[in-house]
Amino acid sequence: MESPADEAAPQTVAAVDLGSNSFHMIVVRAEGETHHVVDRLKEPVRLAAGLTPDGGLSEAACESALACLARFGQRLAGLPGDHVRVVGTNTLRRARNADDFIDRAGRVLGHPVEIIYGAEEARLIYGGVVRDLGRERPRRLVVDIGGGSTELIIGEGGEPELVESISLGAVVQMQRFFPDGRVTRKSWRAAVLDARLTLEPIARAYREAGWDMAIGSSGSIKSILRAAGDDADGGEITPAHLRSLARRVIKAGRVDALSLPGVSEARSAIFPGGLAVLTAVFESLGVKAMSVSDKALREGVVADLLGRLHDRDIREQGVRSAMARYHVDAAHGERVAATALGLFGDSAPPGFERFAGRMLRWAALLHEIGLLIAHKGYQKHGEYILGHADLQGFSRNDQRLLAALVRLHRGRFREDRIAALPTEWQALARRLAVVLRLAVILHRGRDPAAAPPVRLGAGETGVQLFCAADWLNRRPLTRADLAREAEQLGRVGIGLQTAAD
């Protein structure tokens, strides 16, 4: 745990947002609660426009994106790995060949790319937008219209309550309804109607939840405010502004004929798509006015990253919420976690110490999450839950690792679950899985007073578990479990020996 003095020491961190329309990077120097932006980069990559009919990213789109990331990578050179977080959003969630792209992107950037789920993207956006807002009018609706998805969040103060990410985006609506850049009254109405139909399943819940103020946070919404010009008194967008802009877009007839104040040519190319989505949001939710924030996902990522560095990892809250939702035996999980961490000790590979310890602990806390479904094969149920649930703070790969560890904590050691993880995690995941399996065996009796006097020695091809002889002699079932475990691990080439200590 860091001291208050450590936490107040200046730190430089960076967040990179690989959005569906633009890539953004922000570099921040943090001193306590004060954050100073020292660098900010943005490039209109249009990743969503590079999706092919079969759902993959075209090579041209990949090359353009990688060229941008190479430039970003120059700025990130020299920053420690745990001071940088790179997140991919809707298009990378959808792309069939996303894993190949993020592998290439990680090599170019010098930092791994995480694909985050829609709910996590929404949470981070909300955290970025509300960080600098005061307590006045604390109940907020935050709307972010990206290239491929729209996030809607209602929260009280700093806590999100309703979180949704829906498949509506400025680039996607352009492709579907204005593919050749032409805008007619008919295509405009179709685009708005389609967006309203997509919003319909959530609209009632949002209207009933209510809010004190609505805030827009994306490039599309900022461009709409600029396009409204002097009409937008007080820096707010109203339904009248949206109607006026719609008339101007339809009158222009084509995006290349649009001339809107403060809107670049690149932004004009997708302006009708973003305007249609925001119009639908106003109409479906009954929004009367919306202010605009210059904060967004990347500021939320920075705040989250700083929390991780100072042991305020929001993922802990996500794990606790999942434990409560699935009625996990928390006391037993804590005992297994304590033993697992003790066995793992200082053997984490360099650069993975903090990451490995946290992941091992969370996997131990959640290893019985599948019991709510059924005892038989509960590790399989747990794997499914953790692979698909919205866990606050976790990226898709984080959840894949947790799911794999939970699947592997008992039964046959499935090497395919290790092989499905990022290459650089595989050796670590195998070691974590072995440690978790041993910790679960040592606590199989579920004795609250049991603190197994054990330690672990690691060799090139396996591990040696040292147990206090009298402790193990009094537990013949544990001895039998360990013998059976040695057979299980031996089948995949992992040696396990038990010795008196």
UniProtKB/TrEMBL annotation:
Residues 27-307 form the Ppx/GppA phosphatase N-terminal domain. The keyword Hydrolase applies. CDD domains: ASKHA_NBD_EcPPX-GppA-like. It holds the Pfam family Ppx-GppA_III. This is Exopolyphosphatase. Signal peptide: none annotated. It comes from Salinisphaera orenii MK-B5. InterPro entries: ATPase_NBD, GppA/Ppx_hydrolase, Ppx_GppA_C, Ppx_GppA_N, PyroPPase_GppA_Ppx. Keywords: Hydrolase. Residues 314-485 form the Ppx/GppA phosphatase C-terminal domain. GO terms for molecular function: pyrophosphatase activity.
